[in-house]
Structures are given as structure tokens and as C-alpha cells.
Amino acid sequence: MSRQTLAALLSRLLTEARGWRSTYFFRRPLLIGLVLYSVLLILLKGIGFFDRLPEDDPARFIGEAVAVTGIVAGHPDPKPRGCSYVLSCESLLPFDNRTLARSTHGLLSLQVSGADATFAQPGDRLRITGRLLAPKSAAVPGTFDYAAYLKDHGIRCLMYTSVRSVQNLGSSRQFSFMRLGWTLHQSMMDIFHRHLTPPQAAVLGGLAVGSRPRFNPEIKKIFVESGTMHILVASGSNVAFVIGLWFLAMRLIRVPRRWALLSSIPAIWTYALLAGADAPIVRSAVMSSVGILSYALAREERAFHPLTVAALSILIPSPETLFDVGFQMSFLTVFGLIYYLPRAERLISTQHSFLRWVLRLFAATTTAQIWLVPITAVVFKRFFPVSLLSNIFIVPMAAGGLAAGFGLSAADVIHSHCFPIGPVLHVVRLLTRLYIGFFISLVKFFATHPGTALWLSPRGTLWIWFFYAACLTVVGLKNSWTCRALFLGSVLFLTIHGVASFVSAHKERAFRLTWIDVGRTASLLIETPERRRILINPGKSDPVDTTERILMPFLAERGIHSLEAVLLTRPDPEDVSGLESLLSSMKVNQVILCAPPAKSAWAAWLNAHPHIKVRLLKTGESAGWDNLTVEGLPGSDTFRADTPLLVSHGETRIILSSLLPLSAQRELAKRSLKKVDLLQGHFSAKVKWDADFVEKVNPITLIETSFREGESPWPNAPVILPQRLGVYEWTE
Questions:
Q1: pLDDT over 70 percentage in the chain
Q2: Are the beta carbons of 528 and 627 closer than 8 angstroms?
Q3: Average pLDDT of 286-307?
Q4: How far apart are CA 118 and CA 172, in angstroms?
Q5: If you ran DSSP here, which 8-state letter would residue 649 be given?
Q6: Distance CA 224, CA 206 (A)
Q7: pLDDT tens digits, residue range 398-427?
């Protein structure tokens, strides 16, 4: 190799290194340290390091009746039927050994029915008697995994009890700052409820102090469906509003700019304690504090340093927080904004002043959505396209929520404890109501008019790595050929992966039945080799929307985005009230009612829902798709049971019922079925069986519709209980 060629190669490599150095993080050792520390935590989790129980963890006594003493370690979480607490355990006394109490150091999730927000405060020492339980993992794939959520917060056991089994021993003089924050939080919420309607108080509580709308499901629903639920969670925007309000107040009394910013640090941390000190608000408080100090020291250009310090301040004392979804969303969003927006600003700054404001909001919203795509697909499984538009209008309006909340609180405190200002309080209350009323109306508009959610199917870990590789390298396409190669390679992999997923989803498969536990009942999904999908009986919508919580996440996990038909066999429409949510969430070609409409509550339901086109399937009639046929069988005039169905696919015969009546048994006995592959029903000594039916029909597999295994007339056939399993799959 000649000297000229070697010199040219070295020059090219140096140019490439300069491009990477100017684009990426080699001058940011703290950020590199955070990445290496995160990789170490991922490796430790992979080898099961975090699964080891410490010797003094209360989870070692799961399943035992115990008396636990501990301290409330965070803000209580009021719920409609009680209150939830995180307890830092101090001692534990098993009931089978009352002579020796054991010292424990671990967290316990305590659910107290009948308790309210005033029952216990942070720092209170509680003594509880009850049984320690292990958190339940998700029984249905794709649904929320409560056990994993608690584990990522360092909690491995929980206890359900009532107020009669809890004794409040008073303040422990620990968590004093958290206690002060909770006191302020409750005082403000009490003021909101005194002056506003419950929905208005719920929204203002979310905007001002990050209070979750637990007692207003309708408010929660419209904020979720408009893609603006993050507005009701205390996060970086709230901290920015606090800094802005404090800065304006200080400047009004002629405090110098630098000291006005520095004096906002105590206000930032007071607000963080007021809002509960969750990961997003702590991250924002640390970042803001470091950023203000950097400004005071004239080092504010290093935007990644505050983010890194915030992450390490949370991860070093609590490493498992890295795997918490809230932590990941918070830091990925801020990282993406720091990473993309300065580059987007070069294009935005050339536009008209009003257009710059709109483009900045749109760029911030789009950037946040891009960096959260994997988490959205894996955890939430749905994306609201309207959020790209709604946030442009709603996020700026949310800034007024903090001012309205603190203004109303200040006016109430002055009127109640200092001197009467009735007219001023009345004006403030009126303005707050007008503001919150308009805010709710705007959110409701975006939730109901522009469109519905897109349910996403999750991808594998490799897909996520290549997705973020593309996100990181796209900004270096102009300066680095290495970035171009990595970006093109990532895009090529994502494209091939998408095509392969599409081909796999449309490949013929076996005839399959899947029972999905939707709470006390099970929905049944039928899939044919020709990719026909028929769902029998969605679940209820009250008190929990099982379609949104269970059914749609499961279908999204399986890559199912449309149904050929939904069959309804329940005698009561309330048992399948999740149907409307299902119809609004995915494409359904046909709704078939198999229950007799004239003799049940379905007649009134059909009149009340004329917008839903329903086909009636009478006894003896059948519906067919390719090789699949579903026939209605005679029902029971005595018991309120599901309409029995006979499902045929080729040579496969399946009988589906909740309680197979004698009329249906006799009808099936007349047909002399050669083979019944599966029989679903209730098998109990109290159920009457037709002798001719038992003799002629010999099912290979039995599916029990209750939680308990009973006595069947076919002792050699195995009995399966899908509702104990969560999900049960049967393949032809």
C-alpha cells in the first residue's frame, strides 16, 4: 500500500471520527457511564440476580398469616373501594410462632378495603394482621402484568385486608418531607372538591398536582382516547410550569434573573413532594435543578448531563427501576426531545412566528411518539393517531391548570384563614370553572370525533434494537458513511421483519379454539385454516371494561385486527356489554344473536341499539364460513343458560354450551354423531343427562365452564378448566 493511499485512508477515518464525535456522545462520559451501567443491570436481570430474595424480605412468608409492622413509605392511592399503600416493613410475626417477631426490610403492597385518604399518611406506623400473598402474573398473554409491575418497584408480596385489621400507631417521624407533600396535596384536593364539580376537580387535580382520576372513569376514558392522559400525570411539563410561575413572580418584585431561577429550586422540590415523587417527577426535578445550576455556572449547553444525573440518582439506589415502564417512557421521551429538537429547530426557526409555535409543538409530540413506539406496542398495544393533533392544542392549555389550581387554593386559604375576600374568591372560582369546562369539552371533542385507536402487535427484542439503531443514526446521515450504513441496515431489517410477519400472519394454520378468561366467564375465539376468526361472547364492560383490559390486548398480541363474526349466546345483554367497545376497537363483519330475542332481555337491547346490525340465528338454523358451520341448538326454558351451539369443521364436531339442556341432548342423540371431539358444559352430579345421549355421544375432551371440576358421565374423557388457566388452546 502506497503512502498516498494510506494517508487518504487515515484522512477518511479521521473525518469519520470527527463526524461521530460531533454527532454522538464521545464527549459525554457521564452518558456513556449510564449506558454501561444500564447494560450491566440488563445482564444481571438476565441471569436472575434480581430474583434472589434477601433473607429479611417479607416475601419469604408468602402464604402465611402474619402480623406486620411497617411505615407508609409513599403517597396513599385512594380507590373507589379502599386505599392502597406501600409499606416499608420493620417487623413480622407469624401466627404460628407468636413468641418471636422477626426483623424485616422490604416493601409490601397493602390494599385496605373501606379506608379513605385520611386513614394513614406517609410516615405513619401501621400494624396489620392478614395473609401475605404473591402478586398474580398475567394469566392472559398481552394483558397488564401486575406482578411484574410490583417487582420493578421492589415489591414482591401484597396483603388484602380491611380497616378492622389495621392499627395506626401514629407518626414514626420518618418520611417527614413526603408527609408534608401529602398534607399539601390533600389540602389542595379538598379545596378543589369544595369549589368544583367532581369531574372538574378530578381534571384540575391531575393538571395541578398529578392526582389520578380514580373516581371519574369517564374523565379517564376521554383523556386516554384523546391521547392526552399524560397531561394528568405530574411530569416535566408541570415542573416547567412551576419554574415559569416562580420566575415570573420573582421578576415582578425585581429579583435578578439568575437569582430568580436559583430560588426556584426549593419550589421545584416542594412541588415534586406535593405530586408524590414518582419517577417522572423526580427525573424532572433533578434535571431542572441541574439545568438551573448549569445556567448559573454558564455550562447550560450540555443538555444530556442533567438527564444522566437524574437517571443515575434514581437507578443507583433502586436498580430495578430501570425495568419500570414509567421510568423508561419518561427518560426515552426526554432523551428523544434533547436529541432531535435542536436539529429540528434549525428548520423551524426560519418559519413565521405563529407557525414556529405550532411546528415546535408538533415536532415535540411526534418525537415523543417515535421514541415510544416499542413501549407503546409491547406494553399498551394501542396508539391514538389523534394525539398528534390534540397535543398541539391541549398541552399549551394545560399550562393554565397549574396557575388555576394554585390560584384557587391561595384565594381559598386567604379567605378562610386571613381575611374575607368573598368577591375575589367568587371570581377565581368562576374563571376556574370556565377554564376547566372548556378544557374538558376540548378533550372530549378529540376523544370522540377524529378517530379511534390503532391496536398494535408487539415485536421481538431484536426488532426493538434495530428500531432504536435507526432512530440514533438518522441524525448522522449527512456527516457519516457509517451512520448511513447502520441506518440502511436497520431499515432493511425492519422491512424484512415486517414482510415476514405479514406472510406469517396470512399463512394457513390448523383449526383452533382458544378460551380467554374475561372475568367469571370465558370468551371463545375460533380460528380456521382459511384465517376466519369468530369470537363467541365478549365480556362485560362494568365494573371493568374487559374488552379494553383483556380481550383487545390478547387479540393484538396474536396479531388479530379483524373478526369475521361475533356470536352472542348469553341470555342477558349485560353479560356481553363489552360488545360496543369491541365494535369501536376493531373491524367486525357480522354480529349474530343466538339467544331467543323475544323471550329475553335482548328484545329491549335490540330496540335500544338500532345502530348495531344484528343477524338473528334461530334454533335449527346455521351460519357458515368456508368449511366452518355453527348451528343453534334447542335451549332451556327453565334455566337462564347460554344457547347451545354445534360447531362443525370438516369431520370435527364440537358442542358448546354453559349448561346443556335435555332438549339439546335429545336432539343431538337423534343425529347419531359418529364422533364428538369436544364438549363444553357444566359437569355436576346435579345435572341431568339423557341416557341415549350419553351412550351415543362419547366426547374426547370435556371443557368445564365453572371453576370447579365436577362429575361427568364420561369418566375416561379429560376435563379442562380454562378459567383456572386464564387461556386454554385446543387444536384440531
A1: 93
A2: yes
A3: 73
A4: 17
A5: E
A6: 13
A7: 878 888 998 999 999 998 888 888 889 999
Report whether 558 contacts 552 (CB < 8 A).
no
Helix spans in 558-696 (H): 579-585, 602-608, 662-671, 691-696
Tens-digit pLDDT profile for residues 89-117:
998 888 876 667 778 888 999 999 988 88
Give the span between the Cα atoms of 307 and 283, in whole angstroms.
8
CA distance 481 to 632: 66
668: left (phi over 0), alpha (psi -120 to 50) or beta: alpha
Query: 553 and 142 in contact (C-beta within 8 Å)?
Result: yes
Assign 299 to helix, strand or coil.
Answer: coil
User: What are 532's three cell numbers?
Assistant: 376466519
Work out the pLDDT band at 195, boundaries 50, 70, 90.
very high
Dist CA 593 CA 606 (whole Å)? 10
**Interatomic CA distance for residues 553 and 559, integer angstroms:** 10
Q: How far is 385 from 452, CA to CA, in rounded Å?
A: 8
**Does 80 sit behind a cis peptide bond, omega within 30 degrees of 0 on the bond before it?**
no
The pLDDT tens digits for 112-140 are 998 888 899 999 999 999 999 999 888 88
As a whole number of angstroms, the distance between CA 577 and CA 516 comes to: 16
Gap between the Cα atoms of 204 and 408, Å rounded? 10
* Cα 704 to Cα 712: distance, rounded to the nearest angstrom: 10
CB proximity list for 222: less than 8 A, separation 6 or greater = 440, 443, 444, 447, 448
Domains and CATH numbers, the chain: 58-174 (2.40.50), 176-227+384-453 (no CATH), 461-505 (no CATH), 512-731 (3.60.15.10)
Kindly provide the residue ranges of all beta strands, DSSP E only, lying in 14-106, ordered along the sequence. Answer: 65-72, 77-79, 82-94, 102-103
Dig out the grid coordinates for 261 from the structure. 431561577
Residue 31 scores a pLDDT above 70: yes
Question: Does the structure show a pLDDT above 80 at 23?
Answer: no
Distance in angstroms (rounded) separating the CA atoms of residues 467 and 490:
7
Which of 617, 627, 625 has the alpha carbon at shortest distance from 594?
Answer: 617
Q: How many CB atoms lie within 10 A of CB 692?
A: 13
Beta strand spans in 292-370 (E): none
Task: Please state the separation of Cα 461 from the chain's center in Å.
Answer: 20
